[in-house]
Design a protein that fits this description.
Order of helices and strands: HHHHH
Radius of gyration: 19 Å
Number of domains: 1
Strand content: under 5%
Length: 96
């Protein structure tokens, strides 16, 4: 058996590979959520520079918070209101 085959069959290698796949899937899901949020906001409020907004959304750490923000994108009354929501401290649920 070649060294590469031996390494690939090792339990440690398989655990690292599985963890990498899990992290990659989570990151891909997160990027997809961000793209949907931006698409919804564009449909509702027109074109805007999404660079700063993307950065703000990427720092969100909690998956349920992603859901809250995605729902807010649908219900807020203006793009400015959505931006204020992102700037609101997250100690209490925001009023949408």
């Amino acid at each position: 058996m070649r060294l590469q085959e031996f390494i690939q069959k090792s339990e440690t290698y398989q655990e690292i590979l599985a963890e990498g796949r899990t992290l990659g899937l989570a990151e891909g899901r997160r990027e997809g959520i961000i793209e949907v949020i931006i698409a919804v906001l564009r449909l509702r409020f027109g074109e805007f520079d999404s660079g700063n907004l993307t950065a703000q959304l990427q720092v969100l750490e909690n998956a349920s918070l992603d859901k809250l923000v995605a729902e807010a994108a649908v219900y807020v009354e203006s793009f400015e209101a959505f931006q204020k929501l992102l700037e609101t401290p997250r100690t209490q649920p925001a009023n949408i």
